[in-house]
Amino acid sequence: MPTPEPPQKAETTDVPGPDRGADEAPGVDPWDRMPEGALNRPDLGGDDDEPASSGEGGPGAPGPGGDSADVEGPSGGDGAPADGAPVPSRVDFLPSPVFVLLLGLTGFAGWLSWRAVELDWAAEGASVTPLIPPLLILLGWIVSSAVHEFAHALAAYLAGDRSLRGSAYLRLNPFAYPQAFAGLVLPSLYLGLGAFGMTGPPSYVDWDRIPSRGRRAAVALAGPLASLLLSAVLAAVVTVLVPPGNDTTNWAIAAMALLSFANLTAALVNLLPVPGLDGFEVLAAAAHRAPWVPAARRNALFGSVAVFAVLWFPGVREALVNLVYGLFDLVLPNPVFPGIAFYGELLLQFWA
């Protein structure tokens, strides 16, 4: 009787069975068996080996000019953002924490000035040069300048310049301005040296994105209008605190009176049709395609400095101050307001 042969052992394969994980199979890279999209990798938009779509006219199909089809995003609408662009958020229009901190510091400096604490700190009979009121005026002016630029940016966004969404201008953060010299340094220098208000040119607005003349003019006038409103609010507060027939040397009230004066001068001076001022953009709105407009905008900073240099001359500055004080006399019931604002000027320029 023949001896039966032993049964042959079944050949094994590298394919994992139902009870064997992919990571246990020899010779198989588990990352190659990972389902598509399971890696949760961001779409960098630059992979040449992975087409955006499988057919023509898909979501990633190129447009007539060879570029990808228009996708609504921060630069084109309210849909999905473009590659590398920040995702739109509700906080894009909220004041930044820096601005909230700036308001807090301004209020604290105002309280110290109201109480005149520096007089309490000094020895009895000692001469005191107040330093907190100048700080209050500087902080208040930075807040005022931020509101001025915010008005420009908000009007530009509403008029069609969506590139400003989430920017430091719309979030009221003057310390993060891309054009910080024009938006923060220059206005502070103008106030410190001349004791009157001027702001830098709104060079951050993309005027080509704003379609009509009326909208461009409205964007240009939004800043002076905001400064005018701030001046009116501060003047009203001073009038309530110092009713007709009364006078004051309170440091905080004098600082508010000077800030009201500075905002009004900023509103008036910016109406001049000079490159670097808002009045020029009103003029340029009617001649948007003229060849001299881009050249003038490139030199806007020089125009702003030139206007300040002219207004800094004693005779010209005196005429500007008399004009603004005359407007206050016409509107406000208390005739001592110019004197209070002048006292604020003395507090600001303590080195003079």
Task: Give the SSE layout.
Blueprint: H1 97-115, H2 117-121, H3 132-159, H4 180-194, H5 213-241, H6 251-269, H7 278-286, H8 292-298, H9 300-312, H10 314-331, H11 337-348
Helix pairs in contact: 1-3, 3-4, 3-5, 3-6, 4-9, 5-6, 5-7, 6-11
3D architecture notes:
There is one protein chain. The N and C termini lie far apart (128 Å). Mean pLDDT is 80; it is low at 7-24 and 37-85. By secondary structure, the chain is mostly helical. It has helices at residues 97-115, 117-121, 132-159, 180-194, 213-241, 251-269, 278-286, 292-298, 300-312, 314-331, 337-348. Helix 3 packs across helix 4 and helix 5 (213-241) runs antiparallel to helix 6. The chain contains 11 helices and no strands.
Count of helix runs: 11
- Give Rg in angstroms: 32 Å
* Arithmetic mean pLDDT: 80
End-to-end Cα distance, whole Å, is 128 Å
Give the SSE order as H and E letters. Answer: HHHHHHHHHHH
**Which residue ranges are poorly predicted, with pLDDT under 50 across at least 5 consecutive positions?**
7-24, 37-85
Q: What's the β-strand tally? A: 0
Shape, per Cα inertia axes: globular
Let me know the largest β-sheet.
none
| Strand proportion | under 5%
Helix content: 40-55%
| Structural class assignment | mainly alpha
Write a brief structural summary:
This protein is an all-alpha fold and 352 residues long.
